[in-house]
Design goal:
The strands form three sheets. Strands 5-2-1-6-7-11-10 form a seven-stranded mixed β-sheet. A two-stranded antiparallel ribbon has the order 3-4. A two-stranded parallel sheet has the order 8-9. The chain is globular, with a radius of gyration of 23 Å. The protein starts with a strand and ends in a 5-residue tail after the last helix. By secondary structure, it is of the alpha/beta class. The longest helix is centred in the last third of the chain and has 19 residues. A hairpin with a 5-residue loop joins strand 3 and strand 4.
Length: 319
């Protein structure tokens, strides 16, 4: 019996816990009652209340947990408090030394990072927290677009439902693709989700500009992405040299002018694809790509999915 221990705390994300539990339970049932045993543990052994208000029953305090094959740290809005709880961090270090596999879901990555277990490893977390994880723990190689990352015995998942992807990958590793595929079908989910987590994120890389002229230009790009925003055109708008345009974008926005404009156009196209009924060709023209093929290549670069697949996944039911 493979022992799975999930560390929980007040404010934990319910799906971060329930998602992996359902995967392991489905695998156990398909295997005839063997395969996995899942237990929840908290620092003091008391039940915890999730961020959604549901009470989760805890099997034992973490100090009484000794047998563990897979250690999972769930994420949630209480992750900051959990990551700054020295007794909890100490117990996680103890259990990680015993475990065959150490993992996190969503912002649970911050708890393992505080324990020093990610140093020198690749990892991921919820798209909205990837930059914070990279900044706070610079020794971690953060992969912001990954749904889950396996680096040796360290396995991390992106936000919330990505815990299902993580657990399915574990089942596949432990028992093969046939069982993992059967579990995925039973739960009505993808065995391997198409695309990365950038398709779910809101484009926020631009940040704040300290340069007034560039701040105005950024607003113009967002308002009319189909306009000419080539480097020479931007240089003319700002009354600077093309070389200075590149330096300015790098300094203020952390990217090149071409990449920034492409991402702004992708964001504009995403909005049209989600809420409108215009054809792909029309969206491409109105968002500054010119052709549907140019837009398709940009979507693959930025979101790892083509526009047609993006619309199928995220268009409103009314659309």
């Amino acid at each position: 019996m493979h022992e799975v221990v999930i560390v929980v705390y007040d404010g934990v994300q319910l799906l971060d816990v329930a998602g992996p539990m359902e995967v392991f339970d489905a695998a156990r049932r398909i295997l005839g009652g063997s395969g996995y045993r899942v237990r929840l543990t908290s620092l003091d052994g008391n039940d915890v209340v999730s961020g959604a208000g549901a009470r989760l029953g805890v099997a034992a305090p973490i100090t009484e947990i000794h047998d563990v094959d897979t250690l999972v740290i769930a994420g949630g809005w209480g992750f900051s408090a959990a990551a700054t709880e020295p007794p909890l961090i100490a117990q996680i270090r103890r259990l990680s030394a015993r475990a065959t596999r150490v993992s996190s879901v969503c912002t649970g990555a911050f708890v393992l990072a505080t324990a020093g277990l990610f140093d020198g490893h690749r990892a991921t977390t919820h798209w909205a927290f990837c930059e914070a994880l990279r900044t706070k723990h610079p020794r971690i190689d953060v992969e912001p677009d990954a749904i889950f990352v396996r680096d040796g015995r360290i396995v991390t998942a992106a936000g919330v439902t990505a815990g299902v992807d993580l657990a399915l990958a574990m089942v596949e590793h432990d028992h093969g693709a046939t069982l993992a595929r059967t579990v995925a079908r039973w739960l009505v989910v993808f065995l391997q989700r198409p695309g990365g987590q950038s398709q779910f994120s809101t484009w926020t890389e631009a940040g704040a500009c300290s340069d007034d002229a560039l701040r105005k230009l950024v607003s113009e790009i967002a308002a009319d992405p189909a306009a000419d925003f080539s480097v020479p055109a931007i240089a003319q708008r700002l009354s600077v040299s093309p070389r200075h345009v590149s330096r300015l974008f790098r300094r203020e926005l952390g990217t090149s002018p071409g990449r920034y404009v492409e991402r702004a156009r992708v964001e504009a196209a995403r909005i049209r694809l989600e809420s409108g009924r215009d054809g792909i060709d029309v969206v491409a023209r109105r968002c500054g790509f010119g052709t549907a093929e140019t837009m398709r290549r940009a979507f693959i670069r930025e979101l790892n999915v083509p526009p047609s697949a993006y619309r199928e996944r995220f268009a409103t039911t009314a659309s």
